[in-house]
Give the backbone structure.
Amino acid sequence: MSAKFFLYLVMTPIVIYSLDSLQINAIFKKNKVLQARIFYLLIALCLIYLTTQFVYDFFLASKFI
């Protein structure tokens, strides 16, 4: 398996844990649970992708991998 796969496995719980600090209920109106969950999912996917790419490129440029 590739190094990116393992980075995704490591970054996913870190990003999900960090997103717990957001209060997305304040952004959305009352009874808009579905929209809030979709927004949370999209933000999580984007951050997981971006952090994994950053770490991978950082190590690739440092020639550790």
